[in-house]
Amino acid sequence: MAAEGGKIDPMHQFEVQTIFDGFNLGGHQIAFTNSALWMVLTVGVLWLFMLGGMKRELVPGRWQAMVEGMTNFVASMIDTSIGPKGKQFTPYVFSLFMFILIANILGMLPVGIFGLHPFTVTSHLTITGVLAILSFSIVLIVGFGRHGIRFFTLFVPHGTPLPMIPLIFLVELMSFLVRPFSLGLRLFVAMTAGHILLKVLGGFVINGTNAGVGYAFLVGLPSFTLMVGISALELLVAAIQAYVFALLTSLYINDAVNLH
User: Fold this and answer.
1) What is the 3 state secondary structure string of 229-248?
2) What is the distance between the alpha carbons of residues 213 and 208, in angstroms, rounded to a whole number?
3) Mean pLDDT value of segment 204-226
4) How far apart, in Å, are the Cα atoms of 60 and each of 49, 64, 74, 90, 188?
5) I need a labelling partner for 174 at 20 to 30 A (CA). Which of 25, 58, 71, 237 fits?
6) How far is CA 83 from CA 61, 152, 253, in A?
């Protein structure tokens, strides 16, 4: 609960809880958790979104137009970031963008009025970290697959003076290796901070209302008004963070494809 017995616990929403025991694998119990449930829901919503928009009608309806608009948006981003060679990466970047976007939005749903508790999977570093490592692995596979040992020239910018090459190489290499950490950390921090703030404000609303009419007007009402504004901002952040993650992934793939 956000506020139970007068105490505000904004971290409770991030707790991974077991829904039911799954199966035993190598002596380890693999349980089905609330995190897994919301990831399944995210994939299910994405599947329904694409299924409803793949009718290929000559005069597209609203749903088909929305799906085509999203795919064209990602395709345009990849074409700008990578060029003609980036077309083959469109399915991956599109799936990445839509998964993060839908997961972020599902975590904002007011399902608490039905006795449920939303879970934002992108507020866990393990999830965002895996997505970042997956993108980074694609960059390495593409880079070495296309260019072999020449991929290391990525770490030596054109025109670098010969005496500076060892130092610049190390600096560029460290910057390259930090990419998956910064990619996963950025999304994790943005979603976690927003949800903590909303939970704290929600606690103020509940405690202020329970304390009496005076506190309800002095604390509860301003907190609720601020919650509405921040919720709208969080929806914008949810879309921006999905876009930034996909865009940076495209730029990193561009380095591997074109060796810029």
Assistant:
1) HHHHHHHHHHHHHHHHHHHH
2) 8
3) 80
4) 15, 6, 19, 22, 36
5) 237
6) 30, 21, 11
Percent of the chain that is helix, strand, coil (3-state, to 5): 75, 5, 15
The dihedral sign for the CA sequence 109, 112, 191, 237:
positive
Dihedral in degrees, nearest 10, Cα atoms 191, 196, 202, 206 = 150
User: Do residues 123 and 14 touch, judged by C-beta distance below 8 A?
Assistant: yes
Give percent of the chain above pLDDT 90.
43
Query: Whose structure tokens read 């876009």?
Result: 243
Query: Looking at the predicted structure, is the pLDDT value of residue 224 above 80?
Result: yes
Does the model's pTM come out above 0.85? yes
**Joined tokens for residue 129:** 């970290």
Q: Note the residue count of the chain.
A: 260
Q: Average pLDDT, stretch 44-69?
A: 82
Q: What is the pLDDT of residue 227?
A: 86
In this structure, what token pair is assigned to residue 73? Answer: 């948006």
Tokens of 47: 């599947």
Going from the C-alpha of 84 to that of each of 41, 100, 144, 201, the distances in angstroms are 34, 25, 20, 47
